[in-house]
Design a protein that fits this description.
The complex is a heterodimer of chains A (295) and B (249). Chain A is globular and about 65 Å long. Chain A has 295 residues and is mainly α. Chain A has a domain at 20-115 and 147-236. In chain A, 72% of the residues lie in helices and 3% in strands. Chain B has a single domain (18-247), classed as P-loop containing nucleotide triphosphate hydrolases (Rossmann fold, 3-Layer(aba) Sandwich), CATH 3.40.50. In chain B, strands 6-7-8-3-9-10 form a 6-stranded mixed sheet, sandwiched between helices. In chain B, strands 2-1-4-5 form a 4-stranded antiparallel sheet, covered by helices on one side. In chain B, helix 7 links the parallel strand 7 and strand 8 (201-205). Chain B starts with 18 loop residues before the first strand and ends with a helix. The chains are: A mainly alpha (295), B alpha/beta (249). The A-B interface holds A 172, 175-176, 178-179, 181-183, 185-195 and B 67-69, 88-90, 92-94, 98-99, 101, 105, 107-110, 114, 117-120, 122, 163, 166. Bound molecules: adenosine-5'-triphosphate and magnesium ion. Residues 30, 33, 35, 53, 55-61, 102, 207 of chain B line the site of adenosine-5'-triphosphate (ATP).
Chain lengths: 295, 249
């Protein structure tokens, strides 16, 4: 067996893969948070619960309607996205004129309610969700066995993240979004229906969280706390990358997933805290985050 | 307060056309501060009209009220016979009014081309990109630069240029010459004259009344949130003393 720095390559690649998988979820979730924060100026604490709802929604579709994984990838983001739109229209829209803190409190409260409700009905032990037939098994890379489903998650999340980045940075729609992030009133005074754009953006961000939830269901099991555990790390990722930076959220998400994986190999004791240590260091050196602009 | 525009359209003798924009008893507030106190004036189609007045007189607030971006406004603002005072700003823009703000409002996260193409087309009959480049050749050279990397003059050209594409017929320009070099002020003066010749109607806020005199048909003088006076451009000379009083120059 070959070794690198005294570590078996098998273990090294295994942890790198886990890091990349976690990074895929960090990236998708922090991307949604960054898009929402940029336009709505709200730190969406419900994000983790919406990710959890995505996983549950896929589970329900399979259990009660026989709708499988692939259709869930399409249907779940829309369904959960629509619940997001309802939340934005009925609640968040009333808070834009107030301090940040109100949006934070509302979304935090909603997250607690949602997690409480799901825990009440489904307990806290995970519900199994099986890997779709097409993606069971693995690919032998010679130096390691790569499970097909994990490879799919990494590729799909890269595609989703880069697609989102492309739309925001390179299209007309994205230009409206960027402009409205800077000066909402002026973009609306040009004739753009900015309130509708804000609603759809929130729906999109929530849909992205739900999509991540569907993709996570076969890996982490479906469990009411799955979002709460993840979202704390994701907030650290967003702080490190810089609030409101799209590319920053993506790169930091994948990057920190890998750093976390490597830490598990070389210094396992620190693997749960390494991201928070990095967060503290970044905040001290560059308070706006690695990719953020100082305001 | 009777709505002047729901009554007979053709105005009295001496006015060639009915007003395109008719502002009646306009009041506006920022939070608790009551800024406009019954502003009343008209702009006829094809005219260039200025709002003159000291700092803080309420000129910008008047434009922002017409555009629908002040927190609270009351009174009547009729555009082409339609009341707009209760409409959201995107609806007002869609009727054919475009706004060039005092601070220019160039977006830093957009390049020059994206800034130029940002405002949606609301009507037919706007200028083509080629016509805009003809007015402001500098912009053509800088299309891929970040919007806020342009010089002050170029940013002003971009801010004016981007609202000419949209097909809006009434342009609200807030101090387009502020802080610019004399050559650029002249270029903007020529632009306004050409836009007028093409049939645009322009409501121009100015502090520089020597510049205003070269481009405008009429001047409204604002003071403490009210319209204090109206002076036709031809009578500007005769009213110099009064104007100096109002403007405190
Ligand atoms: N966002 C705001 N909040 C509170 N008060 C404001 C706000 N904007 C303007 N004001 C106040 O409203 C009054 C009128 O301001 P406005 O900007 O309309 O004046 P102006 O005639 O355009 O002046 P200037 O020539 O300096 O541009 C001023 O007293 C100003 O302090
Ligand atoms: Mg002003």
């Amino acid at each position: 067996m070959t070794e690198i720095f005294g570590v078996p390559t098998q273990a090294l690649f295994g942890q790198l893969l886990i890091g990349l998988i976690n990074g895929s979820f960090y990236a998708m979730l922090s991307l949604g948070l960054a898009v929402i924060f940029g336009l709505l100026n709200i730190i969406n604490f419900t994000h983790g619960a919406q990710y959890m709802m995505g996983a549950f929604c896929a589970y329900f579709l399979l259990e009660f309607a026989g709708v499988g994984y692939w259709w869930s990838l399409l249907i779940v983001p829309m369904v959960v996205g629509i619940t997001g739109i309802v939340v934005e229209r009925t609640m968040l829209a009333r808070l834009y004129k107030l301090d940040h803190l109100y949006g934070l409190l509302l979304t935090f409260g909603l997250a607690l309610i949602l997690q409480g409700l799901f825990t009440n009905y489904y307990g806290s032990s995970g519900l199994p969700y099986r890997i779709p037939n097409e993606l069971t098994g693995g690919i032998d890379l010679g130096f390691m066995l790569l499970p097909k489903y994990r490879a799919w998650v990494i590729v799909a999340s890269l595609v989703v993240c880069l697609g989102t980045w492309f739309v925001i940075e390179r299209t007309k729609l994205g230009a409206y979004l960027r402009a409205a992030t800077e000066n909402r009133a002026l973009v609306q005074a040009f004739g753009v229906n900015v309130p509708r754009m804000i609603t759809l953006t929130y729906g999109f961000g929530v849909g992205l969280a739900a999509l991540a939830g569907v993709m996570a269901a076969p890996i982490y099991q479906v469990n009411p706390q799955m979002g709460a555990n993840l979202i704390i790390v994701v907030f650290a990722v967003v702080v490190i990358g810089g609030m409101g930076s799209i590319l920053g959220a993506i790169l930091t998400g994948f990057g920190l997933g890998i750093v976390e994986g490597l830490t598990k190999v070389f210094y396992p004791e620190a693997s749960n805290t390494v991201i928070f240590v990095i967060m503290v260091i970044v905040l001290l050196i560059k308070p706006a985050g690695l990719f953020g602009k100082e305001r | 307060m009777p709505d002047a525009l729901t009554t007979a359209r053709p105005a009295g003798p001496g006015t060639a056309t009915a007003p395109l924009l008719s502002v009646r008893d306009l009041n506006a507030w920022y939070g608790e501060s009551h800024i406009l106190h019954g502003v009343t004036f008209d702009v006829r189609a094809g005219e260039v009209v200025t709002l003159l007045g000291r700092n803080g007189a309420g000129k910008t607030t008047t434009l922002r009220s017409i555009m629908g971006i002040v927190p609270r406004r009351e009174g009547s603002i009729a555009y082409d016979g339609q009341e707009t005072v209760r409409l959201a700003s995107n609806r007002i823009a869609r009727m054919g009014i475009a706004y060039c703000p005092e601070e220019r409002g160039i977006f830093a996260s957009l390049n020059v081309e994206e800034n130029l193409l940002l405002p949606p087309i609301v009507r037919d009959g706007g200028l083509s990109i080629e016509q805009i480049f003809e007015l402001f050749p500098n912009l053509k050279e800088r299309l891929s630069s970040q919007g806020t990397k342009l010089s002050g003059g170029e940013q002003q050209m971009l801010a004016i240029g981007r609202i000419l594409r949209t097909g809006a017929r009434l342009l609200l320009l807030d101090e387009p010459t502020e802080g610019l070099a004399p050559v650029i002020v002249q270029q903007i003066g020529r632009t306004i004259a050409r836009l007028k010749a093409q049939g645009f109607t322009i409501l121009l806020v100015e502090q520089n009344f020597r510049f205003a005199a070269t481009v405008a048909d009429r001047h409204y003088v604002m003071d403490h949130g009210r319209v204090a006076d109206m002076i036709p451009n031809s009578e500007l000379g005769a009213n110099m003393a009064k104007l100096h009083d109002y403007l405190g120059v």
